[in-house]
Specification:
The structure is a single chain. By secondary structure, this protein is α+β, with helices and mostly antiparallel strands. It has one domain: Dimeric alpha+beta barrel (Alpha-Beta Plaits). It is built from 3 helices and 6 strands, in the order βααββββαβ. The two termini are 15 Å apart.
Length: 114
């Protein structure tokens, strides 16, 4: 079964991390990819929130604005798609993602793909 392992970043927390911890996270993703290549279908890291555009259609008229659709402390910054035997294995993999030591990794089943 396929799952997304979504990563969420708290910019305020990120700014407090020492450079060594940031490097460890980056290096850890490379190691994670190598260790679990057989189970990883894909991964993407997303740009900073400032580079986002939010599009809404109201009364048939589209509008766009700079920034995220929702405001909060954390933002969705990337994901892995994994193909594993069960949810328990997806949770095991999520716990190995370096970011999990500092923030959250959400495990969610994929219910449709095209």
């Amino acid at each position: 079964m396929k799952y997304t392992l979504t990563l969420h970043l708290d910019p305020a927390l990120w700014e407090t991390l020492p450079e060594a911890a940031k490097q460890e996270i980056g290096d850890g993703h490379g190691a994670f990819l190598k260790r679990h290549a057989a189970e990883i279908v894909g991964t993407q890291a997303l740009g900073e929130p400032a580079s986002s555009k939010t599009v809404r259609v109201r009364d048939g008229k589209p509008s766009s604005e700079q920034g995220l659709a929702s405001q909060g402390q954390t933002f969705f910054c990337g994901y892995y798609v994994v193909d594993v035997e069960n949810e328990a294995r997806a949770v095991e993999l999520a716990a190995e993602i370096p970011d999990a030591k500092y923030t959250a990794v959400e495990v969610r089943p994929i219910v449709f793909e095209a």
